[in-house]
Amino acid sequence: MNQTFQARSLSAAPPSPAPVPAEAAARAGGLGRGALALLLSAHPAPALAVTVLITVLGVAAGRDVLGSCLVALAVLTGQLSVGWSNDRIDLARDTAAHRRDKPLVAGEVGMRSVSVAACAALLLCAPLSLANGAAAGGAHLIGVAAAWSYNLGVKRTRWSWLPYALAFGLLPAFLTLALPGHPWPAAWVMAAGALLGVGAHFTNVLPDIDADLAAGVRGLPQRQGRRRSRTVAALALLAASAALVLGPPGPPDATGWSGLAVTGALAVVLCLPPGTSPDSRLPFLATLGLAGTDIALLVARGTSLV
């Protein structure tokens, strides 16, 4: 009887919640930090900036809601794959340069994780790009392949500017070839994209020229030196802006001239000395400002890309 009573008492008692071990909480926190480190290894700021700018341009070109979402996803996965592959391929060089700002160098994320993430993003990019159509998707994938070729070794040659020119120059084609009739973009649009890519390349390399030379990386900006590279970047970006304002049929309006004045001022910023730090990111931020102004010009004028 006592055994029966005890059994009933035990069955009637509400179960007490199991305490969460401190080890499990620490593990969860570690996973969160690891995920953040993995994300930072993909260079998320420029990846997001490029994705937003191209998506906005896609809307201006006439892509519908579904098409714009496909553009955003394709561009984002492509950019993430390029960013992750860059940090993974450059691990030895970044370690030698004591780049503790890199999560891989700091040991905050593993090599295998970054490699898997880069490959997974690339595998996702392929069907997302082709979902925009075979021609449009092919144009985007050629651009992504060009960016990977840069990471894999072209950046060490005097042709380091070419993958940037090809990738950026083909982005308008990625947008227009998915439209009815699959038209190619106007020549001035593709020229502006290629010039933007060249300017972005020279600008992005500026803070790391000395470290690159020490590591044996001798792309065209490294061969030209910091001062000449700053001038080339400014001229390329200003030429891109001029193509966007002066290229469309008809005379530019006040908005076009104002945009050209703004981009001219930003180009001047690129030519100025970096101040107290040679590692200043101001030129790169000016590049993003130039690109944003160019997209705003297209949207404000309602200019067709074809």
Automatic annotation (TrEMBL):
Q: Where in the cell is it found?
A: Membrane
Keyword Membrane recorded: yes
This protein is called what? UbiA family prenyltransferase
Q: Which residues cross the membrane?
A: 36-59, 65-84, 104-124, 130-149, 161-180, 186-209, 230-248, 254-272, 284-303
Key word Transmembrane helix present: yes
The segment annotated Disordered runs over 1-21
- This protein's major location comes to membrane
Keyword annotations for this protein, in alphabetical order, are: Membrane, Transmembrane, Transmembrane helix
